[in-house]
Amino acid sequence: MADEVELKERLTENDQLSSSAKNNNTDPGQNQNINGTERNFKFGEFTYNKGKTTHKFVKVTNKDGDKLDVRKLVQAIKTEWQLERPNLVISVTGGAWDFPMNRHVKEVFRKGIVEAADSTDAVVITGGTNVGVMKYTGTAMKYYKIATGKGEKIVTLGIATWDKLRGDIKEKLTDTIGKSEPAQLDLQPAKEEEENGTLEPNHSHFILVDDGKNKWGADVPVRAELEKQIKGKF
């Protein structure tokens, strides 16, 4: 009899949970983080200047005590973005500031990175902001799309620090998280006196890391571990 009472109590609790979920039009596990605690992978999309190209992003919370499991981040983006495992990871690093590059070097860089990525089904990973080598990488992808008409064949992933994005960008991205309509961002040229950055407009995907410290570099440990995970088992 005691077992029957306990079973009925459990069934009642489950019915209440299911009813609550239906009333809120949510799945019982929807608001639960893939890590099993507070949700810290938040997905959304945006376009620049009301363009047709949609960029996908995920805001990753990695504050003290979160114990971010990058393996689960890889699984989350694989599922949400429907990405296949790449054959190669091309990791582009360099100065996060604008610097001159002569025409010949630009052509060599552009041709080299595009041919390598296209011929091997690689994912190209950069710091994601619209300056320096990240900007040159994005420009290379832009010319690739124009020349080949292959659209988004090459996944170009920018991994950046959330706190170091311009305030209006963070506000608009936050507003669109979990919604079907993408955020509309204005592609304005960066001002020299601005410390905070913008996202390079020719990258296809972004991981934006928020560690709550308002300093550059929140993306570095996540990027390093992510590259290891992609190279190993995606």
- Rg computed from alpha carbons, rounded to a whole number of angstroms: 21 Å
Q: Structural class given helices, strands, pairing?
A: alpha/beta
Strand order of the largest sheet: 3-4-5-7-2-1-6
Count of helical stretches: 6
Average of per-residue pLDDT values: 79
Assess the beta-strand content as a share of residues: 15-25%
Number of domains: 2
How much helicity do the residues have? 25-40%
**Biggest sheet architecture:** 7 strands, mixed
The separation of the N and C termini measures 50 Å
Characterization of this structure:
- It contains six helices and seven strands.
- 27% of the residues are buried.
- A seven-stranded mixed sheet has the order 3-4-5-7-2-1-6, sandwiched between helices.
- It is of the alpha/beta class and 234 residues long.
- The radius of gyration is 21 Å and the shape is globular.
- The protein has two domains: 1-31; 39-232, no CATH class.
Supply database-style keywords:
2 domains; 234 residues; disordered N terminus
Summarize this, please?
With 234 residues, the chain is α/β, with parallel strands linked by helices. The protein has six helices and seven strands; from the N terminus they run H-E-E-H-E-H-E-H-E-H-E-E-H.
Please render the helix and strand layout as text:
Elements: H1 2-23, E1 41-48, E2 55-61, H2 70-81, E3 88-91, H3 103-120, E4 122-126, H4 132-148, E5 155-161, H5 167-176, E6 183-185, E7 205-210, H6 219-232
Parallel strand pairs: 1-6, 2-7, 3-4, 4-5, 5-7
Antiparallel strand pairs: 1-2
